[in-house]
Amino acid sequence: MSKLDEYMKKPYRMEIVEDQDEGGFVVSYPDLPGCITCGETMESAIKNAVDAKREWFKAALEDKVEIHEPDSLSKYSGQFKLRIPRSLHRDLAEHSVREGISMNQYCVYLLSKNDALYSK
User: Fold this and answer.
1) Domain 77-118 bears CATH identifier 1.10.1220
2) What stretch(es) of the chain map to CATH 1.10.1220?
3) Which residues, 6+ apart, have CB-to-CB distance to 14 below 8 Å?
4) For 77-113, how does the pLDDT look when each residue is reduced to its tens digit (9 = 90+)?
5) With respect to CATH, is domain 3-62 assigned 3.30.160.250?
6) pTM of the model as a whole
7) CA torsion angle for 37, 41, 46, 51 (degrees, to 10)?
C-alpha cells in the first residue's frame, strides 16, 4: 500500500459548513492546514473534499511537509473538574431539579447549547 493510500484511510475529521452568503457548502479538514473546498450540494462538497484531501496529501508528500496524525477523541476522558461559586452551584442544582434531570445532564445541556451558538 502506498503512503498516499495509508493517509487516505486515516480518519481525518471533516468539517462541513453551509455557505449562507454564496450558497452551497464549504468543507475543510482541521488537521490538514489549507485543505479546503466547496460544492453546490452536500454530496458534491463531500466528493470534492475527498479529492482535495488526496491532492493535499500528494503535495505534502512531494514537498516533504510534515503530515500530522488525525486528532483522536481517545485523548479526552469526557471529564473535567470545575470549581464554581456556591451560588452558581445552587442555581444549577435548582434548575436541574425543575427540568427533572441530573445537574450533570443539565450542565452538559447548557455547555452544548452555548457551544452551538459559537460554532456558527
Assistant:
1) yes
2) 77-118
3) 27, 28, 29, 46, 49
4) 888 888 999 999 999 999 999 999 999 999 988 988 8
5) yes
6) 0.64
7) -50
CATH 3.30.160.250 residue window(s) in the chain: 3-62
Whether the CB-CB separation of 52 and 37 falls below 8 Å is answered with yes
Closest-CA residue to 29 (of 50, 43, 13, 8): 13
Identify which of 96, 72, 92 has the alpha carbon closest to the alpha carbon of residue 82. 92
Which of 73, 72, 28, 79 is CA-nearest to residue 49? 28
Cell of 117: 451558538
Query: Which residues, in sequence order, are bridge partners of residue 36?
Result: 28
* Contact call for residues 39 and 47 (beta carbons, < 8 A): yes
